[in-house]
Amino acid sequence: MSSANRGTPTVKAWDPVIRIFHWSLVVSMLLAFVTEDEWMDLHVAAGYTVSVLIGIRLLWGLVGTRNARFLSFVKSPSVVIRHLRDMILRKPAHYLGHNPVAAVMVVALLLFITLTAFSGFICLAAEGQGPLADTFFAGINGKAMEEIHEFFSNFTMLLVFAHLGGVIVSSLLEGENLARAMITGRKKARAEWADVDSEPRIG
Description:
Largest sheet: 2 strands, antiparallel
Number of helices: 7
Low-confidence stretches: 1-5
Strand content: under 5%
Shape: elongated
């Protein structure tokens, strides 16, 4: 039997692919953000890494383990609103995977990280470099695209800070260290999960 704290039974929540993806993306995005002005070669390398990681995550969201699949955690707007209301009332349901509000943030982050990376490729193409150099994207105004790329980058960072805030709030409301769960892959065992029909095996 595994424990989140001494004597506390836990259940498996996140597979290794999700955990490695998550922390690799954190490092790569941070590297890309801090090198955008001074170390362009490193910035581009970090951008390529981010792109590969996003591709892996999108594929894993289709064929991966249960909690990794988009169909298992992306919910309807009514479910998202209900969970947000329950959070405000300080009585949110426990989810073994992403809760409905967190799922919205996951999708938003994947979308804007993709837009940031793609606009970066177009910036490279305007300079005759990168995988889009020989496409019609090479004819797009480079200066204008740099502004768009910077906008997407800055907006993505705002989402990242909102995500961190959400992790802290949800951890407090749910009595679960969600950051640690993304490291260990495990959450505290609960009597009931809103997204699991039968109780997951403890251990």
